[in-house]
Give the backbone structure.
Amino acid sequence: MKHQRSTAQWREMDAAHHLHPFTDTASLNAQGVRMITHADGIYLWDSEGNKIIDGMAGLWCVNIGYGRKDLPEIAKRQMEELAYYNTFFKTSHPAVVELSHLLAEVAPKGFDHVFYTNSGSESVDTMIRMVRRYWDVKGKPQKKTLIGRWNGYHGSTIGGASLGGMSYMHEQGDLPIPGIVHVQQPWHYKYGKGMSADEFGLLAASWIEDKILEVGADKVAAFVGEPIQGAGGVIIPPASYWPEVERICRKYDILLVADEVICGFGRTGHWFGQQQFGFTPDIFTTAKGLSSGYLPIGAVFVGNEVAATLAAGGDFNHGFTYSGHPVAAAVAHANVKALRDEGIVAAVHEDTGPYMQKRWREAFSRFEHVDDVRGVGLIQAFTLVKDKASQTLFDNWGEIGLMCRDIFFRHGLIMRACGDHIVSAPPLIISKDQIDEMIATAVECMEIFEQKLKERGLA
Ligand SMILES: Cc1ncc(COP(=O)(O)O)c(CNc2cccc(C(=O)O)c2)c1O
């Protein structure tokens, strides 16, 4: 595509008109944005022609990789045939029906119904309303409270931001809304010192039981968690955690919700993160990998018992203009079908996922200020630490992470700093050679990082 402006002109216009998410506008405009102009496979190019390895698949979402020729074609055809119609008022259309049928095929057993949204946040807010409606219909309207986790991330809507456990979000907008409480996250490295993984997993799950008893089980509607906390820094719970969480939820008759916005559609090497950790939720929320980011769409997978209960309650008074948007649905259908029929999810499970995890551990465990090197499938991380032997974290949590992230960025590699966790989630189509290329670049950057720590007297 011929670009008609210089980087400088774009930067000036962006600064003049565009408010960015999660951004300090003044500091951004002091340095100017990086204009990403096109992408292919796992690579991005900026307006200066720099080639960048996208170790984050956009925002954990471009599972199928950039530059597909089929998806734009399908979007074009759908847009020409039926660019829009709604799914309110007893209408539907072929694209959303075909997608719903396909999603029921790839979903774990017992999830035959989906509700559509435009984002992960809208999926989470939809789930909150569904959960409370469920208990109304069950004749237990006092069961309203949802339990989330500190450092969990569930989006930026009022409901999602409240359910998430990011305190810097709660401070803006007087959150959380009533009826949402939090328990500590299952971060073994920080909260389980001296305990085995399994012991800590059971302890972390017990915090949920403590909270249920504190609130009163008769008032608790659901527990909500990401199989792996993504934006919280790829916090992978011990194997004992999720089965115990499910046991506790069943014991107290509380709905179990998995937020699969990041873990869904192959990220862990399973279709959904719940399958990686061996638990069955009652509802799970998705977005991102559903369309691989080619168009905005989210979907709430509703367990058959919950769906039947909601149906018994008559109208569920909730939905969006673009719920099941025809073009987004058609693209999502093609995306999911390709993830399945091209064996992309299977390859993550059997081939590139294990390869990445082996190379990631080999490459980073040796660095003096890196610990807790971890990952599963194609989501991985490590934590930058002041002293590995004593497992001491750096002061000013997040400052060192940003310094490290900027070194990657300057060397043509996008990885994400979540506090002092360095995380990566590349497109699922990454090849073994590209994994080697990405890791080699990252290792070079980590050597520069260690040197900078010394220069700053931090090492
Ligand atoms: C688990 C989870 N749930 C809900 C959302 C909200 O989705 P939407 O953004 O589509 O409304 C998310 C989104 N996750 C997300 C979004 C933007 C940035 C980052 C980051 O790690 O920097 C992560 C998420 O990771």
Summary: The mean pLDDT is 97. The two ends are 47 Å apart (CA to CA). Residues 59, 119-121, 124, 153-155, 160, 226, 230-231, 259, 261-262, 287, 416 surround PXG (CB under 6 Å).
